[in-house]
Amino acid sequence: MVRTAVDVRTLRRRNDARVAGLAHGNPGSHRAYRDFAYRMAGRIVPGRPSRRPGGSVSIAVAACLAVASCEDGATGPAASPAVIYGVCGLQPNYVSSVQFAGRFRQFPVSVFIDLGTAAPDLQGTYLIALQQGFRVWQSETESGLAAVEFVGSADHAHIVAEFVSGIPGGPIALAASRPTEFESSGIIAKTVIEFSTTNLGIGLETRFRIGALSQLEFTDAVASIAAHEFGHSMGIQTHAGENADFLMSAIGFEAHTGPTLGDLNTLRHNYCRA
Fold it and tell me: Is the pLDDT of residue 102 over 50?
């Protein structure tokens, strides 16, 4: 989560690749859980018509999907192993100071940007800025770690970035990231990054409109927020590190030129084993 804007001066890299996402549900009650698992498996729910006749997903896998995580030892078709990136234990890092929400199975991850409720006259600028911010991590890593591709639908996206009026984190939060679906235990299937139209409007947008920020400064500030939240979306759930690190909870305007070595080594730690 970012609480104020941060300026960035060099966030200009690019890469392309492709991958698909996975979606699932999370019913609350035991009956809904059972019925959902049967429907996912293409079986007939006792006393109810099947909504997915002829499906091929096993009951065990459907049950895992229904609760958004699978316990070790669950049966069903084996998923491909998570891809290992980077090396564990590289210094400096802030591994001991953060919590990890999980990891994506492999990169690239697909990203869908929904500009629907962003300020209409700034949507083009926001699109450029978010793409820059989401790409900056991959430009500093190796072996495809943190690589992204941009897709045209939320249905096939691992990460959905959207603009909303209010987000968790208090009245000054500009953006927040949270995993919403898990493919299996510890493997993230989908993450949502929410940008606050209210707080961006009364902060960065106002400064830009009155001339306190140039077009480049506004774009770089938004890109920095996006880069911060992308770090969270890759599984680094909490804030830590030094003031220069992207995963600090930034207060005030600070110049960032990209992820620090501490950021990168902490990310590598999260992906250095399957």
Answer: yes
CB atoms within 10 A of CB 211: 7
- Whether 71 maps to a domain, the answer reads no
**Are 181 and 117 in the same domain?**
yes
229 burial (CB, 10 Å; 0-12 / 13-18 / 19+) is buried
Q: Which amino acid is at 184?
A: S
- Left if phi > 0, otherwise alpha if psi is -120 to 50, otherwise beta: which for 218? alpha
**Is residue 136 domain-shared with residue 51, that is, in the same domain?**
no
- Going by their DSSP bridges, the two strands 175-184 and 187-196 should be labelled as antiparallel
Structural domain of residue 38, as residue ranges?
30-66
**Could you tell me if residue 102 is inside a domain?**
yes
Give pLDDT, residue 12: 31
| 239 confidence band (pLDDT: 50, 70, 90) | confident
Phi, psi of 133 (to 5 degrees): -65, -40
The one-letter amino acid at 181? E
Q: Please, are residues 146 and 69 in contact by the beta-carbon 8 Å criterion? A: no
CATH code at position 262: 3.40.390.10
**What is the tens place of the pLDDT at every residue in 31-57?**
433 333 333 333 333 444 433 333 333
Long-range contacts of 26-29 (CB under 8 A, 24+ apart): 26/66, 26/67, 26/68, 26/181, 27/66
User: Does the pLDDT of residue 252 top 70, yes or no?
Assistant: no
Is 78 contained in some domain? no
Q: Where are the beta strands (DSSP E) in the chain?
A: 7-8, 103-104, 109-114, 148-150, 159-164, 175-184, 187-196, 255-256
CB-based burial of residue 129 (10 Å sphere; 0-12 exposed, 13-18 middle, 19+ buried)? buried
The pTM of this model reads: 0.70
Q: What is the pLDDT of residue 166?
A: 81
